[in-house]
Amino acid sequence: DGGITQSPKYLFRKEGQNVTLSCEQNLNHDAMYWYRQDPGQGLRLIYYSQIVNDFQKGDIAEGYSVSREKKESFPLTVTSAQKNPTAFYLCASSPDRAYSNQPQHFGDGTRLSIL
Amino acid sequence: SQQGEEDPQALSIQEGENATMNCSYKTSINNLQWYRQNSGRGLVHLILIRSNEREKHSGRLRVTLDTSKKSSSLLITASRAADTASYFCATEPLFFGGGSNYKLTFGKGTLLTVNP
Fold it and tell me: Does the distance separating the beta carbons of A41 and B42 come in below 8 Å?
Protein backbone atom coordinates (compact mmCIF):
# COMPACT_ATOMS: atom_id res chain seq x y z
CA ASP A 1 0.00 0.00 0.00
CA GLY A 2 1.71 3.18 -1.18
CA GLY A 3 1.93 6.25 0.97
CA ILE A 4 3.94 8.61 3.10
CA THR A 5 5.07 7.71 6.59
CA GLN A 6 6.04 10.37 9.10
CA SER A 7 7.63 9.57 12.43
CA PRO A 8 7.41 10.08 15.26
CA LYS A 9 3.79 11.17 15.67
CA TYR A 10 4.69 13.26 18.74
CA LEU A 11 8.07 14.80 19.53
CA PHE A 12 9.33 16.92 22.38
CA ARG A 13 12.32 19.22 22.15
CA LYS A 14 14.44 20.59 24.97
CA GLU A 15 15.97 24.04 24.82
CA GLY A 16 19.09 24.13 22.66
CA GLN A 17 18.42 20.73 21.15
CA ASN A 18 18.19 19.78 17.48
CA VAL A 19 15.51 17.25 16.55
CA THR A 20 14.95 15.37 13.30
CA LEU A 21 11.58 14.48 11.82
CA SER A 22 11.43 11.52 9.50
CA CYS A 23 9.52 11.35 6.21
CA GLU A 24 9.55 8.28 3.96
CA GLN A 25 7.52 7.66 0.80
CA ASN A 26 7.07 4.59 -1.38
CA LEU A 27 5.09 6.33 -4.13
CA ASN A 28 8.17 6.71 -6.36
CA HIS A 29 7.58 10.47 -6.36
CA ASP A 30 10.42 12.81 -7.33
CA ALA A 31 9.29 15.88 -5.39
CA MET A 32 8.96 16.13 -1.62
CA TYR A 33 7.94 18.98 0.66
CA TRP A 34 7.88 20.04 4.30
CA TYR A 35 5.14 22.29 5.65
CA ARG A 36 4.48 23.83 9.03
CA GLN A 37 0.94 24.29 10.31
CA ASP A 38 0.09 26.46 13.31
CA PRO A 39 -3.31 26.27 15.05
CA GLY A 40 -6.12 27.64 12.89
CA GLN A 41 -3.70 28.41 10.10
CA GLY A 42 -2.94 27.14 6.66
CA LEU A 43 0.23 25.39 5.60
CA ARG A 44 3.48 27.27 5.15
CA LEU A 45 6.27 25.79 3.04
CA ILE A 46 9.59 25.19 4.81
CA TYR A 47 11.68 23.35 2.22
CA TYR A 48 11.07 21.40 -0.95
CA SER A 49 13.08 19.04 -3.12
CA GLN A 50 12.48 18.35 -6.78
CA ILE A 51 15.08 15.63 -7.13
CA VAL A 52 17.63 13.67 -5.12
CA ASN A 53 20.57 15.73 -3.81
CA ASP A 54 18.77 19.00 -4.50
CA PHE A 55 16.45 21.13 -2.36
CA GLN A 56 15.26 24.72 -2.13
CA LYS A 57 14.15 26.99 0.68
CA GLY A 58 10.48 27.69 1.03
CA ASP A 59 8.85 30.66 2.71
CA ILE A 60 9.98 29.95 6.29
CA ALA A 61 13.28 28.03 6.07
CA GLU A 62 15.14 29.84 8.86
CA GLY A 63 15.96 27.52 11.75
CA TYR A 64 15.38 24.36 9.69
CA SER A 65 17.59 22.10 7.57
CA VAL A 66 16.91 19.16 5.25
CA SER A 67 18.72 16.53 3.22
CA ARG A 68 17.67 14.45 0.22
CA GLU A 69 20.17 11.61 -0.16
CA LYS A 70 17.58 9.08 -1.27
CA LYS A 71 14.47 9.44 -3.41
CA GLU A 72 12.30 7.88 -0.69
CA SER A 73 13.49 9.99 2.23
CA PHE A 74 13.39 13.70 3.10
CA PRO A 75 14.21 14.26 6.80
CA LEU A 76 13.71 17.66 8.41
CA THR A 77 15.92 18.90 11.25
CA VAL A 78 14.52 21.57 13.55
CA THR A 79 17.59 23.32 14.91
CA SER A 80 18.05 25.26 18.14
CA ALA A 81 17.99 28.42 16.00
CA GLN A 82 14.24 27.92 15.48
CA LYS A 83 12.95 29.80 18.52
CA ASN A 84 9.28 28.91 18.09
CA PRO A 85 9.22 25.32 16.86
CA THR A 86 5.94 24.24 18.45
CA ALA A 87 3.72 23.29 15.50
CA PHE A 88 2.30 20.46 13.41
CA TYR A 89 4.72 19.42 10.66
CA LEU A 90 3.48 17.83 7.46
CA CYS A 91 5.48 16.07 4.77
CA ALA A 92 4.15 15.68 1.24
CA SER A 93 5.24 14.33 -2.13
CA SER A 94 4.21 14.65 -5.76
CA PRO A 95 5.22 13.16 -9.11
CA ASP A 96 7.73 14.76 -11.44
CA ARG A 97 6.68 17.99 -13.16
CA ALA A 98 6.57 16.10 -16.44
CA TYR A 99 3.27 14.76 -15.13
CA SER A 100 1.61 18.13 -14.80
CA ASN A 101 -1.40 19.00 -12.70
CA GLN A 102 -0.80 16.37 -10.07
CA PRO A 103 -1.89 16.77 -6.44
CA GLN A 104 0.35 16.39 -3.43
CA HIS A 105 0.10 13.39 -1.13
CA PHE A 106 0.49 14.00 2.59
CA GLY A 107 1.68 12.06 5.59
CA ASP A 108 -0.16 12.15 8.90
CA GLY A 109 2.13 14.69 10.49
CA THR A 110 4.44 15.08 13.49
CA ARG A 111 3.39 17.30 16.38
CA LEU A 112 6.44 19.01 17.92
CA SER A 113 6.31 20.61 21.35
CA ILE A 114 8.82 22.31 23.61
CA LEU A 115 9.62 20.82 27.01
CA SER B 1 1.92 35.30 2.17
CA GLN B 2 -1.34 33.43 1.72
CA GLN B 3 -2.43 33.18 -1.90
CA GLY B 4 -5.77 31.52 -1.28
CA GLU B 5 -8.26 32.82 1.25
CA GLU B 6 -11.23 30.67 2.20
CA ASP B 7 -14.57 32.03 3.22
CA PRO B 8 -16.21 31.49 5.64
CA GLN B 9 -13.63 30.63 8.31
CA ALA B 10 -16.17 28.35 9.99
CA LEU B 11 -19.45 26.81 8.89
CA SER B 12 -21.91 24.77 10.94
CA ILE B 13 -24.79 22.93 9.27
CA GLN B 14 -27.18 20.05 9.85
CA GLU B 15 -26.79 16.65 8.25
CA GLY B 16 -28.42 16.53 4.84
CA GLU B 17 -27.85 20.20 4.09
CA ASN B 18 -25.44 21.47 1.45
CA ALA B 19 -22.19 23.21 2.39
CA THR B 20 -20.53 25.85 0.22
CA MET B 21 -17.02 27.14 0.77
CA ASN B 22 -15.32 29.84 -1.25
CA CYS B 23 -11.71 30.56 -2.10
CA SER B 24 -10.19 33.71 -3.55
CA TYR B 25 -6.66 34.10 -4.87
CA LYS B 26 -4.48 36.86 -6.24
CA THR B 27 -2.24 35.76 -9.10
CA SER B 28 -2.59 33.72 -12.29
CA ILE B 29 -2.77 30.01 -11.64
CA ASN B 30 -2.08 26.74 -13.41
CA ASN B 31 -4.58 24.89 -11.26
CA LEU B 32 -6.49 25.11 -7.99
CA GLN B 33 -6.80 22.20 -5.59
CA TRP B 34 -9.09 21.44 -2.67
CA TYR B 35 -7.93 19.37 0.29
CA ARG B 36 -9.61 18.06 3.40
CA GLN B 37 -8.00 17.68 6.83
CA ASN B 38 -9.51 15.77 9.72
CA SER B 39 -8.41 16.92 13.16
CA GLY B 40 -4.82 15.92 13.89
CA ARG B 41 -4.33 14.24 10.52
CA GLY B 42 -2.67 15.01 7.21
CA LEU B 43 -4.36 16.56 4.20
CA VAL B 44 -6.28 14.46 1.72
CA HIS B 45 -6.67 15.64 -1.86
CA LEU B 46 -10.28 16.08 -3.03
CA ILE B 47 -10.35 17.74 -6.44
CA LEU B 48 -7.93 19.50 -8.80
CA ILE B 49 -9.37 21.93 -11.34
CA ARG B 50 -7.23 23.31 -14.13
CA SER B 51 -7.27 26.96 -15.14
CA ASN B 52 -9.08 26.15 -18.40
CA GLU B 53 -11.86 24.25 -16.61
CA ARG B 54 -14.94 25.89 -15.15
CA GLU B 55 -16.58 23.08 -13.20
CA LYS B 56 -15.69 19.65 -11.92
CA HIS B 57 -17.59 16.95 -10.04
CA SER B 58 -16.53 14.07 -7.84
CA GLY B 59 -19.28 12.18 -6.04
CA ARG B 60 -21.02 14.66 -3.73
CA LEU B 61 -18.41 17.34 -4.44
CA ARG B 62 -18.73 20.10 -7.01
CA VAL B 63 -15.99 22.63 -7.65
CA THR B 64 -16.29 25.74 -9.79
CA LEU B 65 -13.52 28.06 -10.94
CA ASP B 66 -13.90 31.62 -12.20
CA THR B 67 -10.49 32.84 -13.32
CA SER B 68 -11.84 36.31 -14.22
CA LYS B 69 -12.83 36.80 -10.58
CA LYS B 70 -9.93 34.73 -9.25
CA SER B 71 -12.27 32.64 -7.17
CA SER B 72 -13.40 29.06 -6.65
CA SER B 73 -16.13 27.36 -4.69
CA LEU B 74 -16.49 23.89 -3.21
CA LEU B 75 -20.01 22.53 -2.77
CA ILE B 76 -20.65 19.43 -0.68
CA THR B 77 -24.17 18.14 -1.21
CA ALA B 78 -26.24 16.09 1.24
CA SER B 79 -23.62 16.52 3.97
CA ARG B 80 -22.89 13.84 6.55
CA ALA B 81 -21.42 14.01 10.04
CA ALA B 82 -18.31 12.34 8.60
CA ASP B 83 -17.75 15.42 6.39
CA THR B 84 -16.78 17.36 9.53
CA ALA B 85 -13.23 18.59 8.81
CA SER B 86 -11.19 21.58 7.70
CA TYR B 87 -11.18 22.29 3.97
CA PHE B 88 -8.29 24.08 2.27
CA CYS B 89 -7.81 25.48 -1.19
CA ALA B 90 -4.34 25.57 -2.68
CA THR B 91 -3.14 27.28 -5.82
CA GLU B 92 -0.32 26.32 -8.17
CA PRO B 93 1.00 29.45 -9.88
CA LEU B 94 1.27 29.82 -13.64
CA PHE B 95 4.77 30.38 -14.91
CA PHE B 96 5.12 31.91 -18.34
CA GLY B 97 8.04 31.03 -20.55
CA GLY B 98 8.58 27.60 -19.09
CA GLY B 99 10.31 26.49 -15.92
CA SER B 100 8.92 24.22 -13.31
CA ASN B 101 7.43 25.10 -9.99
CA TYR B 102 6.30 22.66 -7.41
CA LYS B 103 5.05 25.13 -4.89
CA LEU B 104 1.46 25.24 -3.73
CA THR B 105 0.15 28.12 -1.66
CA PHE B 106 -2.53 27.22 0.86
CA GLY B 107 -5.28 29.29 2.41
CA LYS B 108 -6.16 29.21 6.11
CA GLY B 109 -9.09 26.85 5.58
CA THR B 110 -12.78 26.58 6.40
CA LEU B 111 -13.75 24.51 9.42
CA LEU B 112 -16.94 22.63 8.54
CA THR B 113 -19.03 21.09 11.31
CA VAL B 114 -21.91 18.84 10.28
CA ASN B 115 -24.29 18.20 13.16
CA PRO B 116 -26.16 14.85 13.27
Answer: no
Looking at residue B99, its pLDDT comes to 46
Bridge partners, B36 (sequence order):
B44, B87
- Would you put residue A53 in left (φ > 0), alpha (ψ -120 to 50) or beta? left
Distance from CA of B15 to the nearest CA of A (A): 24
Nearest to B33 by CA among A34, A88, A101, A91: A101
Residues of A in contact with B4 (CB under 8 A): 42
Kindly report the nearest CA distance between residue A103 and chain B, in angstroms.
Answer: 7
A21-72 pLDDT per residue, tens: 999 999 999 999 999 999 888 899 999 998 999 999 999 999 999 999 999 9
Q: Do B106 and A48 touch (CB under 8 A)?
A: no
Nearest residue to B23 (alpha-carbon basis) of B95, B57, B71: B71
